[in-house]
UniProtKB/TrEMBL annotation:
Protein's organism: Acidilutibacter cellobiosedens
Hydrolase recorded as keyword: yes
Domain Amidohydrolase: start-end pairs: 49-537
InterPro entries: Amidohydro_3, Metal-dep_hydrolase_composite, Metal_Hydrolase, YtcJ-like
Protein name: Amidohydrolase
CDD domains registered for this protein in UniProt: YtcJ_like
PANTHER family in UniProt: IMIDAZOLONEPROPIONASE, PROTEIN LONG AFTER FAR-RED 3
GO molecular function per UniProt: hydrolase activity, acting on carbon-nitrogen (but not peptide) bonds
Keyword terms, alphabetized: Hydrolase
Pfam families in the record: Amidohydro_3 (PF07969)
Length: 542
């Protein structure tokens, strides 16, 4: 059987042939692309013909960085996104415990709160959570995933108290009497996470299925996802789960796994088992080594070269020394692993670039395509090096929804002009791959395109856009979510555009996003999603 699409308003993302009307698909591949007349002539008795009725068709979206399993676990656990007060947070978790009938002594896990959205802007603390329950272990992670709050039970369990609350590369917040408040930042949060119950492979697969169904409804057909950071699961089980799902026909989307391996020992063990970038098939592939070099601006843990403008006592929290980072990046490169380094502050970005520059010449000559994920605070000198080292800027435009309201006070009037500067990145000739970092934000590509094009939050603030000279065009944003995201994962030869010979992944939209008001892009619906030429999401069937 073959599939024929006629009467489409097709934007191919192929610069040589940017527009088309019709597609001929066989064996999951675009076999022909052209006008209605050309493709109609190919109809035979085994053709399934779909009339697209003039609708806009684009290549399937590729999310350049997210956390699929964690997004799935959020759909499964207590969802605290959008909570407006500490009272509401308490009530949501109480309701969750009773609806799921969670026994006393068990863990209660919630995610997604952010005190900036509370009516009274203070962090929740152990005493708030003790009102929910003193007999469960409660851990509620902030939407940024760099901080959590726990109840007194958890602090007792991990042995954190007035006398014992120091930790390297992290903070247990304390009150004026040195008593821990329940807020755990960075490695303090990881210590809590290390106590969480294990995630079985079956549960992991459940998360992936829940999350996949969601992203398919948003037109995402491929994603680069860091799942090793999901608390409670060994990295080998992540790979085995995906491999089994792929074998059993349960993996509906294409996954490029961004492997978070925090130490040299982990990287060596991983490599010794034969894993390196590119191992796998078109549905599940080992992607980059993910390295976390700092935190984020919201919690003042992104690592800056000058102190924070709204707290000059801190530069942020680096996760590695320069020497440690040099060794990680050298060992990874020797082991055939592409790098995707989370770096938000300019100092962190500088450290990653330093480490890449120190690689032996023979490695630097290779097509490394190192990704710097987020790269929010930059400067002209760093951008020149991006270009020289062919670093991909892996950017999350939807971050503006929150960061518009916070970044300027963190960075001050001067540094802010060098931050979130996406148009400048493109003008410098740097490849910009776009993603959502879900579950930090929703994996909804239309929201990402809206943010990139309008530079406004989801309420339309500010009028005219935030630093509007850095707006991307719709076409530039679409390239970031298709062919350039494919480039970031060494897969531009097989996907990211509608081209003869490529995988037949594409989406049908409710409206032509090139022609509507940019403000309305966030309301555009994905009507249908196809992978391998097969319909995997249809809005009429939900
Ligand atoms: Zn991330």
């Amino acid at each position: 059987m073959n599939l024929i699409i006629l009467n489409g308003n097709i934007y191919t993302m192929n610069k040589r042939n940017p527009k088309a009307e019709a597609l001929f698909i066989e064996d999951g591949i675009f076999k022909n692309i052209g006008s209605n007349k050309e493709i109609s002539e190919l109809i035979n008795k085994s053709s399934l013909v779909i009339d697209a009725d003039g609708k806009t068709i684009l290549p399937g979206f590729i999310d350049s960085h997210m956390h699929l399993a964690m997004f799935g676990s959020n759909l499964y656990e207590c969802n605290l996104v959008g909570t407006k007060s500490i009272e509401e947070l308490i009530n949501k978790v109480k309701d969750y415990i009773s609806s799921k009938k969670i026994p006393k002594g068990d863990w209660v896990i919630g995610k997604g709160w952010n005190e900036d959205y509370f009516n009274v802007k203070r962090l929740p603390n152990r005493y708030d959570l003790d009102k929910i329950s003193k007999e469960h272990n409660i851990c509620l992670t902030r939407g940024c995933y760099h901080m959590c709050v726990v109840n007194s039970n958890v602090l007792d369990e991990i042995g954190i108290n007035k006398e014992n609350h120091e930790i390297n590369n992290g903070i247990f917040d304390i009150d004026q009497n040195s008593v821990p408040t329940g807020i755990c930042r960075e490695s303090a949060m990881k210590l809590v996470y290390s106590k969480l119950p294990k995630v079985s492979k079956d549960r992991f697969k459940e998360y992936i299925k829940l999350a996949s169904n969601y992203v398919l409804s948003r037109g995402i057909t491929s994603l680069c996802t860091d799942d090793f950071m999901l608390p409670g699961i060994e990295w080998q089980n992540v790979i085995d789960s995906y491999t089994e799902m792929n074998r059993d026909g349960e993996l509906k989307i294409r996954v490029y796994e961004q492997c978070l391996l925090p130490t040299l020992e982990y990287i060596k063990e991983f490599a010794s088992k034969g894993y390196k970038t590119g191992i796998g098939d078109d549905h599940f592939k080992i992607g980059q080594l993910k390295i976390l070099t700092d935190g984020n601006l919201g919690t003042r843990t992104a690592y800056l070269s000058e102190p924070y403008s709204d707290d000059n006592s801190t530069f942020g929290i680096p996760q590695y020394t320069q020497n440690e980072l040099d060794n990680l990046i050298l060992t990874a490169t020797e082991s055939g692993l592409q790098i995707a380094s989370h770096a938000i502050g300019d100092k962190s970005i500088n450290m990653v670039i330093d480490a890449l520059e120190k690689l032996p010449e023979e490695y630097k000559k290779r097509d490394l395509r190192s990704n710097i994920v987020h790269c929010q605070v930059t400067n002209d000198r760093l951008l020149k090096k991006f270009k020289k080292l062919n670093i991909v800027a892996n950017v999350q435009p939807i971050f503006l929804n929150y960061d518009i309201h916070m970044a300027e006070s963190r960075l001050g009037p001067s540094r802010i002009t060098n931050s979130y500067n996406w148009k400048t990145l493109l003008n410098e000739g740097i490849k910009v791959a776009l993603g959502s970092d879900s579950p930090v934000e929703l994996p909804d590509t239309m929201l990402g395109i809206y943010s990139a094009v309008t530079r406004k939050d989801l309420n339309g603030f500010p009028n005219g856009g935030w630093f509007p000279e850095e707006k991307l065009t719709v076409d530039e944003a679409l390239h970031g979510f298709t062919i350039d995201a494919a480039y970031s994962s060494f897969s531009e030869d097989i996907k990211g555009s509608i081209e003869i010979g490529k995988l037949a992944d594409f989406v049908v939209l409710s409206e032509n996003i090139y022609e509507i008001e940019p403000e309305n892009i966030k309301n555009v619906k994905v009507l249908k999603t196809f992978i391998d030429g097969k319909l995997v999401f249809d809005i009429e069937k939900i």
